Amino acid sequence: MAGILFIISAPSGSGKSTLVGELRKYVEGLEFSVSYTTRSPRGSEENGREYHFTTRENFERMIAEDLFLEWADVFGNYYGTARSALSQAAEHGRDLLLDIDVQGAMQVMKRMPKAVSIFIMPPGPRVLETRLRNRSVAEHMTDEAVIERRLRQAHSELEYVSRYEYAIVNDVLDTAAAELRAIVLAARGENDAATATLATCCQTASSPARLQKVLDQFSADASLR
Ligand code: ADP
Ligand code: 5GP
User: Fold this and answer.
1) Which of 72, 133, 195, 203 would be 103's cystine partner, CB 3.0–4.6 Å?
2) What domains are there in the chain, each with its CATH number?
3) pTM, two decimal places
4) CA nearest ligand 2 atom 17, residue
5) Is 157 in the pocket of ligand 2 (CB under 6 A)?
């Protein structure tokens, strides 16, 4: 594809959807890939908007026909990015953003090494727990077992952070949103000096202590082992 491919991953509840929503408001020329999934729609989700909702049978047929750029089993459901997302973005002359889990991200990084990869982290396990709880209350789905499972899953997903080019710690929303915007603009070469500095600070290689602090908090939490 001609444009830039951005990959965003984050443990559930870290604020990825919120940040991507902010990016949509402030950055033009980005296309958002609509994934296929076998999970059921939640809340106000619509087929073709958040996801293409499909059956396991159809998903497996698409795998057999090699129609996916990547796919993964996440929380017991299939999720996948159709290859056609790349060609569509290229036709429209736009950059493409993939919101995919760590397994899918590893596949895309291997196939498309020029992709710009961004990992969004929660500031720590207790903040993540609060966010998961608040969201589940808002969605009327307060299942303790789901929250516990997502917290443990977050711990294991965080181990992938060093494989990504950039990492954002989503503590203060406005700061994290500005960092995400800076990364996109810097990758496009549309940045001023301040934006370039902000993007560089988010490189995983340039500030490992900032990320290690979050990882240490998860490792120290006995309930997540
Ligand atoms: P994800 O898409 O990563 O699963 P969401 O974007 O749904 O996460 O965010 C999870 C919850 O945390 C939501 O209720 C959202 O409003 C809240 N949230 C996201 N970012 C922040 C932030 N920086 N500060 C406080 N709350 C946040
Ligand atoms: P949710 O069901 O909460 O919308 O998403 C669950 C997880 O699946 C998130 O981590 C999300 O990034 C991931 N996901 C969504 N679409 C895809 C996809 O096409 N491929 C992969 N590998 N993961 C996806």
Assistant:
1) 72
2) 5-33+95-224 (3.40.50.300)
3) 0.95
4) 100
5) no
